[in-house]
Amino acid sequence: QVHLVESGGGLVQAGGSLRLSCAASGRRFTDYAMGWFRQAPGKEREFVASVGYRNDMTYYAASMKGRFTISRDNANNTVYLQMNSLKPEDTAVYYCAASSRLPEYEFWGQGTQVTVSS
Description:
The chain is an all-beta fold. It contains no helices and 11 strands. The protein has strands at 2-7, 10-13, 18-26, 33-39, 46-51, 58-60, 68-73, 78-83, 92-99, 107-108, 112-117. Strands 2, 4, 5, 6, 9, 10 and 11 form a 7-stranded mixed beta sheet that branches. A 4-stranded antiparallel beta sheet has the order 1-3-8-7, with no helix packed on it. A hairpin with a 7-residue loop joins strand 9 (92-99) and strand 10.
């Protein structure tokens, strides 16, 4: 079992920045690729970004590439999502997730709300 706890969400104006954190506990952190997803009201959950086991391979959804940066700190069992140039359409609940066998993610956090005002 991997327990994931997100933090860092909040209210920000358009054009602003936020950094989300996801602290992991339980099984060995480096056994898992990590991802961020988001779900806006009335919409399906969508992929945001992922990072490989050793912080080496990163992938982004097209609409986030260049604005968001995913990274992980294996020494502290934490994954981050730096979000810049935020837009109102980035408003959503953001979830982190852990995967031992991509593309399936077995473990999910409870989510953190990000609201971007225009």
